[in-house]
Specification:
About 80% of the residues lie in helices and about 0% in strands. It is an all-alpha fold. The chain has one domain.
C-alpha cells in the first residue's frame, strides 16, 4: 500500500469493516486528497520559512519585532481556528443528515467576521494592551498598528476556510490545495516586493496578500462547483418546512431570520470552541513571555511557528482531507474508529516531526546565526534551541489532540468538546502564571504542554474508554520514544562530529546532513515497515485491480 494512500486512510475505519468495493473505488481519490492537502500545507510552511529568514535578516529581533509578533500570534491563532472549521463544520454539511446548507454556512461566516473586524480595527489599541502587557510603549504601538492589517487577513482566511469546507464536501481537494499553494506564492512575492518599504509590518501585508488570493481562488472554486446551492440542506417534500428556512414563496421576517442565523452561529462556534481554546493557549503563553528581554518574544514565536506547522502538516492536514468520509463511516461504524485510526496516524506523524525538531536544535538554529549573525545573536541561538526543546512535549500532545478531535466530532461528541474549552483555558492560565512566577519565561514555555496533554488524555478516554485508552497511550508513547530517541541520537552524533569544524555554515551543514543520514539509516532498524511505505510515497499510480 502506498504511503499517502495509507496515511490518508489513517482517519478512516479499518479496511475489514468497510465494503471492499467502496474502498477500491475511493483509494485513489483519498490518496490524492491527502497528498494535495499535505503538500499545500508544507508549501505554505516553506513560504513562511523563507519569509521568516528574510525577516530576521532585514529587521532582526528587537522590541518592534516583538510587538509585531504578538499581533501575528493572534493572527496565527485565528488562522488555525478558521482552518479547524474545515474539520468541525463538515459533519454539519455532509449528506445525508446535513444540518446546514452551504448558503446558511456562508451567512454564519459573515456574522463571525463582524466582531473580528471590530476588535482588530477600531479597538486595536485596547486589544494590544491586553495581549502585550509586558512590551514597551514602542512595541505595543507596533502591535496596535499591525492589528488592522492582520484583522482583514483573518476575515479573508475565515472565508477561504469556509470555501474549502464546501469544496471538501464536493471532493474538490485539488482546488483547495491550489488555492493555498498560489496564495502562499503570492504572499512570498508581496513580501519580497514590500520589505524595503513597509518595515516590520511587511509580514502582515504579505499575509493579507496571501489571504486575498487564497479566498478569491476558493470562492471561484465554489462558484464553479455549483455555488452555494439552496438555502436549506437536503431535499424537502412539497409543503414541508425546515427550521431556519423561509416557507416557499414567502419572505421570513427579519427577526426570525436573524434568530436563525444566530442559532447557526452558536452551533458552528460551539463545535469549534475547543480548537480556538487549544490555539489561544499560545497567545496566553506569549503574553507572559512578553516580559522577557527585547527580542525574546520574536524568538519564541519562531520556535512555536516551526512546531505548529509540523502539527498542521501532519495531523491537521490528514484530518481535513478525511473528515467527510470519516463522518459518513462513523455514522455506520462506531465501534473501532479511534483505535483503528489515531495510533497509526500518530506513528507516521512522529516519523516526520521527530527529525524536524532535532534538526532545528542541532543544525537549524546555528545555521540561521551563521547566515544572519547580526539578526540572531549567539545567546538567541541558545534561546531558540531551549524553546524548541521545551516545545517537544507540547508537539506530541498537539498531534494527539489534532488526531482525536476530528474522530470525536465524527462520533457526534461536539457538545462535550465545547464544554472542555473554558476549563482548558483556565487550567493553562493557572499553570502558566505559576510556572512564570517560579521560573520566568522558560517556566511559562515549559508549562505549555500541561493543558494540551490533559485534554488529549480526556479525549482518548472519551473515545475508547479507560481500559483501552491505557493500551493506546502506551503504544503511542513507545512510538514517540522510538522516533525521538532515534532523532536525538542521529542529530546528536551529527552535532558531535561537526564540533571538530570551525563554527559557521560548514559546521551547521555537517550536523544537519550527517544527522539526517543517520536518522534515515536508523529507520531501517527501528521502523523498517514505515520506511518501506515512506519510500513509496511519490508513487500515486492506480493500484492493480
Amino acid at each position: 500500500m502506498r504511503f499517502f494512500g495509507m496515511s490518508t486512510q489513517l482517519l478512516t475505519p479499518i479496511a475489514a469493516e468497510a465494503p471492499a468495493e467502496r474502498e477500491a473505488a475511493g483509494a485513489e481519490s483519498k490518496a490524492r486528497a491527502g497528498l494535495a492537502m499535505s503538500l499545500a500545507t508544507f508549501a505554505m510552511a516553506a513560504a513562511s520559512g523563507i519569509q521568516a529568514v528574510l525577516y530576521l535578516g532585514r529587521f532582526g529581533t528587537n522590541a518592534r519585532t516583538d510587538g509585531f509578533f504578538v499581533a501575528f500570534a493572534l493572527y496565527s491563532t485565528f488562522g488555525v481556528f478558521a482552518q479547524s472549521l474545515r474539520v468541525t463544520s463538515v459533519p454539519l454539511l455532509v449528506e445525508p443528515g446535513a444540518r446546514l446548507s452551504a448558503r446558511r454556512f456562508a451567512a454564519v461566516l459573515l456574522c463571525i467576521a463582524l466582531p473580528v473586524l471590530l476588535v482588530t480595527c477600531p479597538l486595536a489599541g485596547p486589544l494590544s494592551q491586553l495581549i502585550a502587557p509586558g512590551l514597551s510603549t514602542a512595541g505595543r504601538s507596533v502591535t496596535s498598528s499591525a492589528l488592522p492589517v492582520l484583522g482583514c487577513a483573518m476575515v479573508l482566511q475565515l472565508w477561504a476556510a469556509g470555501g474549502a469546507t464546501v469544496l471538501a464536501i464536493r471532493d474538490r481537494f485539488t482546488t483547495i490545495a491550489a488555492a493555498y499553494f498560489f496564495g502562499a506564492l503570492a504572499g512570498l512575492i508581496a513580501f519580497l516586493a514590500l520589505m524595503t518599504r513597509t518595515g516590520v509590518h511587511t509580514l502582515g501585508w504579505s499575509m493579507l496578500t496571501m489571504s486575498v488570493v487564497t479566498s478569491g481562488w476558493m470562492l471561484l472554486g465554489v462558484r464553479r462547483s455549483g455555488g452555494l446551492g439552496p438555502a436549506s440542506p437536503g431535499r424537502r417534500a412539497p409543503g414541508t418546512s425546515v427550521p431556519g428556512a423561509s416557507a416557499p414563496g414567502a419572505s421570513a421576517p427579519g427577526g426570525r431570520r436573524l434568530s436563525a442565523i444566530l442559532r447557526d452561529c452558536g452551533m458552528v462556534l460551539g463545535r469549534t470552541a475547543i480548537y480556538l481554546a487549544v490555539n489561544v493557549l499560545f497567545v496566553i503563553t506569549l503574553a507572559f513571555a512578553s516580559r522577557s528581554i527585547a527580542g525574546g518574544t520574536t524568538v519564541l514565536s519562531y520556535a512555536y511557528l516551526f512546531a505548529s506547522y509540523l502539527v498542521a502538516g501532519t495531523g491537521m492536514a490528514l484530518g481535513m482531507s478525511n473528515i467527510p468520509d470519516m463522518t459518513r463511516d462513523a455514522r455506520a461504524q462506531l465501534r473501532t474508529l479511534v483505535a483503528a485510526t489515531v495510533p497509526r496516524g500518530f506513528r507516521y506523524a512522529m516519523l516526520i516531526v521527530a527529525p524536524a525538531l532535532a534538526g532545528l536544535i542541532a543544525a537549524g538554529a546555528p545555521l540561521i546565526h551563521a547566515l544572519l549573525p547580526h539578526s540572531l545573536s549567539a545567546a538567541q541561538v541558545g534561546s531558540l534551541r531551549t524553546f524548541t526543546a521545551l516545545l517537544v512535549v507540547w508537539t506530541l500532545a498537539a498531534l494527539l489532540v489534532n488526531f482525536l478531535l476530528p474522530v470525536l466530532l465524527a462520533l457526534g461528541r461536539s457538545r462535550l468538546l465545547g464544554a472542555l474549552a473554558v476549563p482548558l483555558v483556565l487550567i493553562h492560565l493557572a499553570v502558566t502564571a505559576i510556572a512564570a512566577a517560579l521560573l520566568g519565561v522558560d517556566g511559562a514555555v515549559g508549562a505549555f504542554w500541561l493543558a494540551p496533554t490533559a485534554l488529549a488524555a480526556v479525549l482518548l478516554v472519551t473515545g475508547v474508554g479507560r481500559g483501552q485508552a491505557g493500551l493506546l497511550a502506551r503504544e503511542m508513547l513507545i512510538d514517540a520514544v522510538r522516533f525521538l530517541g532515534l532523532a536525538g541520537i542521529a542529530f546528536g552524533a551529527g552535532w558531535a562530529v561537526s564540533t571538530a569544524l570551525p563554527s559557521g555554515v560548514a559546521q551547521a551543514a555537517v550536523a544537519g546532513l550527517l544527522g539526517g543520514t543517520v536518522y534515515l539509516a536508523g529507520l531501517s532498524v527501528v521502523a523498517r515497515p514505515q520506511l518501506e511505505v515512506l519510500l513509496r510515497a511519490a508513487d500515486l499510480r492506480p493500484a492493480a485491480a
